Amino acid sequence: MPAAEVSGHALGIVLAVGFAAAMGGLLIWMFRLPRMVPAPAARARRGVDAVRRILVPTVGAAYSQRGVELACRLGLEQKAEIVLANVIEVPRTLPLDAPLPQAQAQAEEAIEQARAIVELRGLVAHAHIERAREAVEGIIRAARHVDADLIVMGTRPHISAAESVLGRTADGLLRRAPVEIIIDRYPD
Length: 188
Known about the structure:
- This protein is of the alpha/beta class.
- It is built from 6 helices and 5 strands.
- The protein has a 5-stranded parallel beta sheet with strand order 3-2-1-4-5, with helices on both faces.
């Protein structure tokens, strides 16, 4: 047999062995079973992966902006939409649609500050300004209106003795919110 034929057969054998090894590795990879995960851990992961729209009540304060940052970090992996909500509390002596230009300007300013945080994280921000008699009522209505999956709320560090442990708004949300809530207490 000439040397060229021998080297051609050797090359064919090397290619055949390489192909068989690659196919064998692919089949082993395809048919390997994933690591067992306890059912509660799998449910928790699925629950967090399902978060697509996060409502964040914001008032423009540092604790509120920290809540926006936390919401961004929570929603970053699944590219969640961040809905920035501000509730204008209308006194009971006025109709809900009464003009409150100063409160409206403050609400818009708080939303813009929060929007800057969301855009720094590369997420989509939507603004929602709600009018209500109490902040809890407005936040719950906003969560239903935007079909939120989660509410993330920052709370102030100092709460008066007359209020509950978390504050009036956070406590009311924990009792009545239609979705999961994460409350972040800003440190002193």
